[in-house]
Write a structure and sequence with these properties.
93 residues; mainly alpha
């Protein structure tokens, strides 16, 4: 009865230490001050908004299914073939 309890406590402690170690490996900001990070994030958001507005214009002016497809391909390109997020677990081996 004591063995499973000791093993569970050991696993719990290891998990806590692992999480603590991970938080030190990748510190937030990575050497940038808050203003630099804010500027980068806002610039990225503005790029996405601009891209979305261009996509809206493309779709509004499309007159056929082929033009809709061209808008989709232009503004929403297919993910890379080697992207692991799109693989099933059997394909990873």
């Amino acid at each position: 009865m004591r063995t499973p309890l000791i093993i569970s406590a050991f696993i719990f402690i290891c998990a806590i230490e692992s999480d603590a170690a991970d938080s030190n490996i990748y510190p937030q900001g990575a050497g940038k001050n808050i203003e630099q990070k804010r500027t980068e994030i806002l610039q990225h958001i503005q790029e996405r908004v601009t891209n979305s507005q261009a996509e809206i214009t493309c779709v509004k002016t499309a007159a056929s299914h082929e033009e809709f497809r061209a808008c989709h391909e232009k503004y929403r390109p297919a993910p890379p073939k080697n992207d692991k997020r799109n693989q099933s677990p059997q394909q990873e081996h």
